[in-house]
Amino acid sequence: MFTQKSFEIFSIDGLEARMAEIRSEIQPVFSEIGQKLLTELSAKISNQEFYFHIAQHRRRTANAPENTWSAISTKARGYKMEAHFQLGIWEDYVFIYLSMIDQPKKQKEYAELLTNLSVEKMLTEDFIISKDHTKAEVFPLSAFSEAAERLGKVKKSELEIGRLWPKERFDGKEDSKILAEMLETIDQLLPIYQKLMEV
Question: For position 125, which CATH number holds?
Answer without folding.
Answer: 3.30.930.20
